[in-house]
Amino acid sequence: MKILLGLLFTLLWSSAAIAIKLGLHATTPLLLANIRFLIAGALLFIYVYCIKRSYRWPRREEWRPLIILGTLNTTLYLGATSLALDKVSAGLFNLFVTVNPFLVALLSSVWLKRKITGKEWIGMIIAAIGLFIATWPALADSEFQFAGIIIVAAGMTAMALGSVFFKKANLALPGLVINTWQLVIGGVLSLPITYFFERDKYVLHFNYYLAGSLFWLVFVISIATMLLWFYLLKQDAVKANNWLFMTPIFGFMLSAAILNESVTTYDWIATVFVVAGLLISGNIAVQRVGKMKLKQ
């Protein structure tokens, strides 16, 4: 069951880049992200506090962690995702998601005192080689926009920090409530950023690109997939992020099928390395980590 949940998360997570790419046919990156955050946050808030009414409000000491999570996971990571996908392909973006487990492993070893085994490091190094193989043709392309990779790297760093902080904070709140507040807080914090960078160049067309993109990003990604992400993080932050090693496989298939992006030999070779890294690194972590139940 845990393997199936990991694969489902990876498939859904990789589809987010496709949905954002389609949404960019209708609007600008930060505006798309902001609309997504506010709609998802508002819907969750109504469900949690107006319909369900069985969840408590955060206590005073819980607001600071929620603000940090909203800033890292929503404002910075998801905002950077929209910006980056305006410059790089969906397939390449999904491949760069594999950087995240390296950052989480490093931060966990320092912050959570979680020992990383030699086999785990070897697996992640193998996956990193695959990342370099796939990136090399793009780096050699004069039309490649290096700024996109910088933005992706910044977003991945924010996500890794959010993953480790979530584990360390160990909030006594259900994942649904945490996700609600990180979307609401992150969306509000994103408003001035969106206004500052896009106030003179924003575009907004109400068409099927916008409707389809927002439906998928709000209901499938921001709500359903993030709840699954929190569940996996509750088990172990490093293990959960190791599933991100699989995103290139689903990402390349989806981008080729839906966006008609080309998949090169470099991409497939890189995918082999990434999967090998997952098998060596990810499965080792599963055997060593004690399980924690998600508090409801």
From TrEMBL:
Its main location: membrane. It is found in: Endomembrane system. Residues 3-135, 147-280 form the EamA domain. Keywords: Membrane, Transmembrane, Transmembrane helix. Gene3D superfamilies: 1.10.3730.20. InterPro entries: AA-Vitamin_Transporters, EamA_dom, EmrE-like. GO terms for cellular component: membrane. It is a multi-pass membrane protein. The chain crosses the membrane at residues 29-51, 63-85, 91-112, 121-140, 146-166, 178-197, 209-231, 243-260, 266-286. Belongs to the EamA transporter family. This is DMT transporter permease. It comes from Paenibacillus radicis.
